[in-house]
Structures are given as C-alpha cells and as structure tokens.
Amino acid sequence: MKLANVDGRAVLVTADNAGLDVERASNGKFGPDLASVYANWDSFRSWAEQAPSGAEVSFTRSQLGSPSPAPGQIVAIGLNYRAHADESGFAAPDRLPPVFTKFVSALTGPDATVVIPPGGNVDWEVELVVVIGRTARRIGEDEAWDHVAGLTIGQDISERVSQLAGPAPQFSLGKSFPNFAPVGPWLVTPDEVPDRDDLRLGCAVDGETVQDGRTRDLIFPVARLVAELSHTITLSPGDLVFTGTPAGVGMGRDPKRFLRPGNELTSWIDGIGEMRQAFEGEREE
Ligand code: ZN
C-alpha cells in the first residue's frame, strides 16, 4: 500500500498521479488528514487491505506534502553507515549511534525549493525514513517492524558551518533551516518494498550521482534502531525516524563540495520513489 498527503488529505495511491481519497472512500471512517490515519493505523490497514473503491482523485507532484505532515517528533540518526562515519572522521558507533532532532518547522513535502542561508555550506544526506504506526515503548527488536507504518525517502539537508560551530556539534540547529527536511513522495508499507532490510538509496546533484548505498549496510538496522530508541523515548504514530545517510556527502569529499544556487538535488530509494529539491540563494531585502 502507498499512502500520500495530497493537499493535506490522505490518499491511497493507485498510480503515480492517481488514488482514492481516504475520507470519502471510507465514508468518513478515516481521514481526512494523515495524522488521524496514523492514530487509527491498525484498523486503517485492515480497511485498506480490503481493496476499497470509489472516491478517485488525480493529483500532481506539486500537491504532495510530507506523508506525515505533523509528527510529534522527528528523530534523526548520525553515523549509521560505516563508510559515512569514516568520511566524517568519526569512529563507527557500537552501543548507540548519535541521536538528534530535525525541528518540525523544517519539514516539507518531496519537491520543495530550499534557500541556502547566507555563507552556508549546504550538504546532502539521502536517508531511509521510518514512519511509526503504533506507540512504541520499551519494545523488543523482534516486534519493532510491527510498530512501523511504512517507509519513505528523506533528505537530511545539513548546513555544515552552523552544525560545526562552537565547542560541540549543533546537529539539530544546522539541519533545521526551513525546508531542510523534505520527505516523500509517499509512504510505502514494508510488505510492498522488494526487501525492507535491503533497499538501494542514492542521490544526484544536477544528474551526477553523489551517493549510492544500500540499507543492508546500516550499522543499526530499522528494527534495532526502533527498539533501542523506544527504551529512552516513547515513539508515537506519525513520528518520523531519519535512519542515517550512506557515504558520499559533500563534506566528506576532497575537495569538499556544497550545494549552490541553481543546483537540483534528486534523491531516490528503490521501491519507494523519488524526490527533487531546487536550491536558490537568499534574495536581497
Ligand atoms: Zn543524516
């Protein structure tokens, strides 16, 4: 099942630009918004599996918002691929990876335009993003996937100057400028991807591939990550978890490379889809 946010309404996706409006197809039982769908995720899934019909809608990419537009929390993970920890100059984590947040005000849909802050070194980080479907508190790894509603693509866009200024890294601030958390194009349930623990993901700048990895290389795979996080924080339906980026970020290159006004960033995950961000400079006041 694929679930999209079309102008704020939950839509079961049936083709790249068409689907069923959830509220109308369910006669008001679910929806209209995404948050209420995640709040009733188990009964929504049962209903959606019975192949509902009617209430067909068509949409364009510009109507798509984040598949979870109002998460209570966005949890983000650092250094979760060995080759990326290497290029960042850090040891790979063993007990727990670094955990930070991308503030919710940075969240946007799959095809946003991103303004580069003045003097900023803006970098790309394609990531598999998990959408939580059931409250998770101190759960085991073996039950973690049952608490996941689905998977989507995220870009953990990062401004490295502010991230690295000061005595300790400012991960959360440096990664939370407006539109620095594009997510989409829709949620795909784990049963619908080729292998939920081995998805190919990558991104390209102006058509040149800069990251190309596989989620089987996650040091903390999805199930372990969700279980470990749930021993500290309570994960709630609609929460997003950015699971970390593979190697190939601009900061890890020699010479370093950052996004410039006019660049287009394309990100993809096999079995999920694609996102596109255009970058522009700050306009003079
Ligand atoms: Zn990241």
Explained architecture:
The chain has 285 residues and is α+β, with helices and mostly antiparallel strands. The chain folds into two domains: 2-64, no CATH class; 74-281, Fumarylacetoacetate hydrolase, domain 2. 15% of the residues lie in helices and 32% in strands. It contains seven helices and 19 strands. The protein has helices at residues 22-25, 34-39, 41-49, 82-87, 160-164, 171-174, 222-230; strands at residues 2-6, 9-15, 18-21, 56-58, 64-65, 74-77, 99-101, 107-108, 113-116, 122-123, 126-132, 148-155, 158-159, 181-188, 200-205, 208-214, 240-242, 264-269, 273-281. The strands form three sheets. Strands 1, 2, 3, 4, 5, 6, 7, 8, 11, 12, 14 and 17 form a twelve-stranded mixed beta sheet that branches. A five-stranded mixed beta sheet has the order 9-19-18-15-16, with no helix packed on it. A two-stranded antiparallel sheet has the order 10-13. A hairpin with a 3-residue loop joins strand 18 (264-269) and strand 19 (273-281). The N and C termini lie far apart (45 Å). Bound molecules: zinc ion. Zinc ion (ZN) binds next to loops.
Primary descriptors:
285 residues; alpha+beta; 2 domains; 5-stranded mixed sheet
Could you outline the blueprint of secondary structure elements for this entry?
Layout: E1 2-6, E2 9-15, E3 18-21, H1 22-25, H2 34-39, H3 41-49, E4 56-58, E5 64-65, E6 74-77, H4 82-87, E7 99-101, E8 107-108, E9 113-116, E10 122-123, E11 126-132, E12 148-155, E13 158-159, H5 160-164, H6 171-174, E14 181-188, E15 200-205, E16 208-214, H7 222-230, E17 240-242, E18 264-269, E19 273-281
Parallel strand pairs: 6-17, 8-14, 9-19
Antiparallel strand pairs: 1-2, 1-5, 1-14, 2-3, 3-4, 6-7, 10-13, 11-12, 11-17, 12-14, 15-16, 15-18, 18-19
Bound molecules: zinc ion.
